[in-house]
Amino acid sequence: MTTESPRWFTSSYSNNGGACVEVATNLVASHGVVPVRDSKRADGPELDFTADAFSAFVDGLKTV
């Protein structure tokens, strides 16, 4: 098992107003998940979504 750490980033569409989320897509290949967290609380909880669920979420945003 790998102990790879998440590499967090915010969207390039973020305006840095403080109401952002961060994602770590580097864990998809090794763990099959995309962790998401509040950028204001880096030490707070994170939600892990399956790669398919996160992809569906992003696709849904593109239609809005």
List keywords for this structure.
64 residues; globular; 25% helix; four-stranded antiparallel beta sheet; alpha+beta
Structural commentary:
This protein is an alpha+beta fold. The protein has one domain. It is about 25% helix and about 25% strand. It is built from 2 helices and 4 strands, in the order ββαββα. The protein has a 4-stranded antiparallel sheet. It is globular and about 30 Å long. The termini are far apart.
Topology:
Layout: E1 9-10, E2 21-23, H1 28-31, E3 33-38, E4 46-50, H2 51-62
Antiparallel strand pairs: 1-2, 2-3, 3-4
**First CA to last CA: what distance?**
38 Å
Query: Quick one: biggest sheet?
Result: 4 strands, antiparallel
Fraction of residues in β-strands:
25-35%
Return Rg in Å. Answer: 12 Å
- Unreliable spans: none
SSE string, helices as H and strands as E? EEHEEH
Q: What spatial form do the alpha-carbon principal axes imply? A: globular
How many structural domains does the protein architecture include?
Answer: 1
What is the number of strand segments?
4
Report helical residue fraction.
Answer: 25-40%
Strand order, main sheet: write it out: 1-2-3-4
User: Roughly what is the average pLDDT, rounded to an integer?
Assistant: 88
- Backbone structural class: alpha+beta
What's the helix count? 2
